[in-house]
């Protein structure tokens, strides 16, 4: 019996990793899930995975999520430079986009139970917006995507919260159903397996710093996988050489997730 047949017969958790624009590859997997009539019994997301997961949790179809994400392709729709605080980008425009999609819905009001992973910025501890949380979806998403220094940290429930990738980029360990379908866009297929060799030293340095972050996330995820006690179906789209800021390449990155589900 293959993975699709197993998932059709068992309650399962869908876990979607963070990864900026690379997370658009989640949509290809979701398109295949719709084709096979697979509906998760809970959704767990970090950062971009939480944004897409939240759309799915309120009942949006994959084609509608694609349309919503294409709004991010034009950076002027959401990038607003901040002159104050600890961040480069003001999240006002992003919040307006999220409010258009989710309105005032709370996490506890989704059609499919949803969990969103963030990080307590002062303690470094993982923070889970559980499926019973009365926090507005918009607020939780602004927290889980708040890369320190890039987006403003969020003050929620007397806590200071930032991007979930700092503690758990793919929330496998939060899954409660009997099986797990996880999509990791920051896995082994997300980076080059050779060192940068550009003529320009500054380019090499930037790539080495980016590689360091990717390896930290990758090793964090391997540790989580080693602790997982449930049947795990892991999909790792080949997202290299796309970048985490390639929001103008929705169709191309989405295609990276297509056809992988039936190969499990």
Your description of this structure?
The protein has helices spanning 3-9, 26-35, 48-57, 62-70, 92-102, 137-144, 201-227, 250-254; strands spanning 12-16, 42-46, 80-81, 89-90, 114-120, 126-129, 154-156, 159-163, 179-183, 232-235. Strands 1, 2, 5, 6, 7, 8, 9 and 10 form an eight-stranded mixed β-sheet that branches. Strands 3-4 form a two-stranded antiparallel ribbon. Helix 2 (26-35) runs antiparallel to helix 4 and helix 5 crosses helix 6. The chain has 264 residues and is an alpha/beta fold. It is globular. The chain contains eight helices and ten strands. The model has no long low-confidence stretch (mean pLDDT 91).
In a nutshell, what does this entry contain?
This protein is α/β, with parallel strands linked by helices and 264 residues long. It has helices at residues 3-9, 26-35, 48-57, 62-70, 92-102, 137-144, 201-227, 250-254, and strands at 12-16, 42-46, 80-81, 89-90, 114-120, 126-129, 154-156, 159-163, 179-183, 232-235.
The outline comes out as globular
Q: How many DSSP-defined strands?
A: 10
Beta-strand fraction estimate: 15-25%
Average the pLDDT over all residues and give the rounded result: 91
Label this structure with key terms:
264 residues, 8 helices, single chain, alpha/beta
Outline the secondary-structure elements.
Blueprint: H1 3-9, E1 12-16, H2 26-35, E2 42-46, H3 48-57, H4 62-70, E3 80-81, E4 89-90, H5 92-102, E5 114-120, E6 126-129, H6 137-144, E7 154-156, E8 159-163, E9 179-183, H7 201-227, E10 232-235, H8 250-254
Parallel strand pairs: 1-2, 1-9, 2-5, 9-10
Antiparallel strand pairs: 3-4, 5-6, 5-8, 7-8
